[in-house]
Amino acid sequence: MPETDHINPDQIDVDPEIQPNPKEAPVPLESDEEAENK
User: Fold this and answer.
1) Phi/psi at 25 (nearest 5 deg)?
2) Using CA atoms, how far apart are residues 6 and 28, in angstroms rounded to an integer?
3) Which region ranges are annotated with the description Disordered (predicted)?
4) Can you give the pTM of this predicted structure?
5) What does each C-alpha distance from 5 to 1, 8, 11, 30 come to in angstroms?
6) How far apart are CA 15 and CA 12, in angstroms?
């Protein structure tokens, strides 16, 4: 699997499909946690 060697872990983090997923998940989660904490 030479393609895996060429693909860097940084490239996967920049993936447009993975970026919107983790970015939208922690946003609502943090808001909910802060609202419950207050």
Assistant:
1) -80, -50
2) 34
3) 1-38
4) 0.15
5) 7, 7, 12, 35
6) 5
